[in-house]
Structure formats: C-alpha cells, structure tokens
Write a structure and sequence with these properties.
Number of domains: 1
Strand content: 25-35%
Radius of gyration: 15 Å
Distance between the termini: 45 Å
Number of strands: 3
Largest sheet: 3 strands, antiparallel
C-alpha cells in the first residue's frame, strides 16, 4: 500500500493516555515493518487540565527503510518539542 500510494510512512496515534492496555502498536510487530513512536503531547480536558499520561504518535515505514522512519520521528520531535515530563509523574532523580 505504501508503494502504491507513494507514501514514505503511515502515521497514527499509538497507545492510550488513560493507562488501559489498548494499543495501536500492532502493525510493526505483525508485519516486520520498521516503526518509531514519539511523544506528541498529554491528554487534557476541555479546561486544559491534564487528565492522563502522554499521548504518542507512531510512524510506520516501508520494509528495510529504517532511516526514513527515524528521520521522520526526529523531525517531528524537533518541530514540536512535545517531549515533556508528564504531570502525573515527577522527574527521575
């Protein structure tokens, strides 16, 4: 599908910010295609209060194209600076 649509990767939210076992991270292990997950923020209520843990984004790339997937993840992190210490967990130290 990636080849047919001339796509470098599929991008989708992964996991859940609410601590349940549900996850979307099944494509990479079941297909053997490379993937990387990066933080994209925290779950918040309409008033802006943090309601859960971190929310992640997964990039799934073409087979044997790990470099592109890592580059996309890195570019997203540099553009968004979404990596933060979650409000529900203090700094390690």
């Amino acid at each position: 599908m990636l080849q047919d649509q001339d796509l470098d990767a599929l991008v989708y939210p992964s996991g859940t910010p609410y601590g349940t076992q549900s996850t979307n991270m099944r494509l990479s292990p079941n297909t053997g295609m490379p993937a990387i997950t990066v933080p994209m923020g925290q779950a918040t209520a309409a008033d802006g209060t943090v309601t859960g843990g971190g929310v992640n984004l997964e990039f799934l790339g073409r087979s044997f194209d790990e470099g592109t997937v890592i580059g996309l993840g890195y570019a997203f992190e540099q553009a968004t600076h979404a990596r933060t210490t979650p409000a529900l967990y203090g700094p390690v130290g």
